[in-house]
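Feature request, filed as a ticket because there's no other form

It would be nice if the structure record came with a short human-readable summary line next to the tokens. Right now we just get the raw output. Example of a typical job, pasted below so the devs can see what we mean:
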Amino acid sequence: MKKNNVILILIVAISLPALAYFGSGLSSGLQTVTQAHQMPIVLEVPFMDRDIDLSNGISLDAWEPIHPGEIEMEYQVMVLPWGKSLINPVTVKAFHNGRDIYFYMSWKDDTENRITGINRFSDAAAIMFPIGNNVQNSTIMMGFMANGSNIWQWKASQDSEYWLKEAPKTEAYADFYYPFEENETFVVSKNAPISAVNDLMVIRVGTLTPKPSQNVQGRGLWYNGTWQVVFKRSLNIADPEQDADFNTLTRVAFAVWNGANGDRGGRKSISHDWTSVDIMPAEGAK
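Raw output as currently delivered:
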């Protein structure tokens, strides 16, 4: 056998397994963009005898002494629409006061997007908490756990509506004074939000559902090209099958949407992996 033919056979033998692996990654929706991933971090949740009244803001001074975690993000490329722009990294912090638990997320964003409309999308952020102890390491995009996940999603547009009492701007109408009417007959109604955060449940793609009870509050502040968002919820749970249980919680995941770049729905930046959580007891508590 000629030397050139031997070399060609070797190249084909080496290439085929690599191509098969790459193709299987595409067909199953696995990440195909290689990135240098950081070592897993542990998000410490210390006890602090402090409360944040979100009606007065997010209390930036309360977060200064808390050690941050830098969460590495990646494109969501598991289902369409895939992400087009990447927000990376996201800074996270957390603490509890024995009654409520608080989470803080911060990331760079050149534009503040609070208005939705035709080809206009809101900035947003979310935290996902697995329900139960059966937490798998496969995909964190939408849970895929036996007991599902509890997701808290903050939206900048909803934040303005709830906290700033700004009515959403409407760019399309079902009935605009049609015809010979002095007033609108068929007014398009919209329920006023009871929070800037949507408290959701999900088991897999296509199952994202608002919970009957909305127990999470949140508020965001955009300043000088940076979003800072705070989430707040009672440590007590109303429904163990739907509420994140911070007595047993060990992992969380994060997501961020950049409205200016067309992020919405599945088009987002997601944390590369689960982040371990260490919720510390109050001083003197066992």
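Something like this underneath would help us a lot:
Helices lie at 3-27, 60-63, 156-163.
Confidence is low (pLDDT under 50) at residues 6-37.
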